[in-house]
Design goal:
Blueprint lengths: L4 H9 L4 E3 L7 H9 L7 E5 L4 E5 L6 H5 L4 E5 L9 E3 L2 E10 L1 H10 L3 E2 L5 H11 L14 E8 L4 E4 L23 E4 L5 E4 L5 E7 L1
Parallel strand pairs: 8-12
Antiparallel strand pairs: 1-3, 2-3, 2-4, 5-6, 6-12, 7-12, 8-9, 8-10, 10-11
Length: 212
């Protein structure tokens, strides 16, 4: 049987999101059960029918479907359940802490819950966070009163804005018209209409935590 090397290459490029590869389980159902035994770390599985390969994933990918469209691979997502008080979006859990904190204090508070300050990676996620946690502009006479900290920060090493937890450069952004303004304002908050602002990290806002 010819081995699917393109599949191997894809897994290798996404190694940080794979828990185990080639798990010896012997079928789709057993592969899903193996994922359930590894909750909450495992959020999805891949099962390649021809080679009976089971791969456990720690993260949901938006691009799996396009990659697998011509492959004999089954993709399963487990039903995601968040802790009380947390809300689910795209197989991640989110929580709004309404206590005013500096960016560093907010980061530490999220870590206490095995989470991190929200990393907004798409327009859909930004829209969901905004509609779920940020009051509309007509309820916020002062934008700062309705702002939340995100995990975004300016990295002097990378000379770009990055996400604190993943250390990835923010490929998706939604800056307000006059932002980022710089000048030592290195931490990203989300405010009116889901627009982004860079603020002094010592400022105090509510904040959103995220965890897989």
């Amino acid at each position: 049987m010819k081995r699917d090397h393109s599949f191997d290459n894809y897994l290798q490029s996404s190694a940080n999101n794979v828990i185990l590869t080639n798990v010896a389980v012997g079928g789709r159902i057993a592969c899903v059960l193996e994922c359930q035994m590894r909750l909450p770390d495992c959020v999805a599985v891949l099962h390649q029918d021809q080679e009976l390969r089971c791969i456990l994933l720690r993260r949901f990918f938006n691009d799996w479907n396009s990659y697998l469209s011509n492959k004999s691979v089954a993709y399963f997502l487990r039903k995601y359940e968040c802790s009380p008080g947390w809300r689910e979006f795209n197989n991640h859990c989110y929580f709004l802490n309404q206590t005013m904190r500096t960016w560093n204090e907010a980061k530490v508070e999220c870590q206490r819950h095995n989470a991190y300050l929200v990393e907004v990676e798409s327009s859909d996620e930004n829209t969901w966070v905004t509609s779920t946690y940020i009051k509309p502009p007509d309820q916020c006479p002062v934008s700062w009163y309705c702002s939340v900290w995100s995990g975004g920060m300016y990295s002097t090493t990378k000379q770009n804005h990055v996400w604190q937890n993943s250390e990835a450069i923010a490929s998706y952004t939604n800056w307000d018209s006059d932002q980022p303004s710089g000048g030592g304002q290195n931490c990203i908050n989300i405010w009116k209409g889901g627009k982004w602002d860079d603020a002094f990290c010592g400022a105090q806002f509510e904040f959103v935590c995220e965890k897989p």
